[in-house]
Amino acid sequence: MDAKKFIVDSLIESSETKLKIKDLLVREIQTAVKLLTECFKGGNKLLLCGNGGSAADCQHIATELMIRLSHNIKRPALPAIALTTDTSSLTAGGNDIGFENIFERSLEGLGNEGDVLLAISTSGNSENVLRAAIKAKLMGIKVISFLGGTAGKMKHLGDLQIIIPSSNIQRIQEGHITVAHIICELVEEELYGKS
């Protein structure tokens, strides 16, 4: 393998994916900002779920909202909970009720009507994320799905789908965190940047 060519090709592919996001997903990103701004204004919270790299993204996004992203905006914490971080709950749930049910169960215990669930699945076929999204709808929780490629089973599930236009998992995950940063910055600005 030619390492230099691989590096250059990867950077080009990443850049091209972000340009496609610009061309295809601006309206969806604006809608996500509106949903989250209304959620927080209403005294509700964001819950997040995903597997692997998407689980790490859940923690990252929740932290940006809980702590802050923009250092020029002084604000209180925004309520955001990554359902991916409690190892006791995740392992007990996986052992006792099945890995496919872990996020649904946590959502049942922590979620309330008016909350928002950010369901992240690069394939759109993660069974535990899919089940959480279905449970959310039954509970009156709005669902924003971060997906990629063909979006799988979750393509039409939920209130809003942000589908990164790539079939490469790395590019999809990069797209998810880029979009998430934009959303977090705009939510901060909408809620606290105008004072």
Tell me what you see in this structure.
This protein is α/β, with parallel strands linked by helices and 195 residues long. It has helices at 3-24, 26-41, 53-66, 87-96, 102-110, 127-138, 169-192; strands spanning 46-49, 80-82, 116-120, 142-148, 160-164. The protein has a single domain (3-192), classed as 3-Layer(aba) Sandwich (Rossmann fold). 55% of the residues lie in helices and 12% in strands. α2 packs across α7, α3 (53-66) packs parallel to α7 (169-192) and α4 crosses α5. The protein starts with a helix and ends with a helix. The model has no long low-confidence stretch (mean pLDDT 96).
Short overview:
The protein has 195 residues and is α/β, with parallel strands linked by helices. 55% of the residues lie in helices and 12% in strands. The chain is globular and about 50 Å long.
Proper CATH architecture: 3-Layer(aba) Sandwich
CATH superfamily label: Glucose-6-phosphate isomerase like protein, domain 1
Q: Which structural class do you get from the secondary structure elements?
A: alpha/beta
**Would you report the number of β strands?**
5
Largest sheet, spatial ordering of strands? 2-1-3-4-5
Helix content: 40-55%
What are the SSEs and their pairings?
Blueprint: H1 3-24, H2 26-41, E1 46-49, H3 53-66, E2 80-82, H4 87-96, H5 102-110, E3 116-120, H6 127-138, E4 142-148, E5 160-164, H7 169-192
Parallel strand pairs: 1-2, 1-3, 3-4, 4-5
Which labels suit this protein?
alpha/beta; globular; 195 residues; 7 helices; Rossmann fold
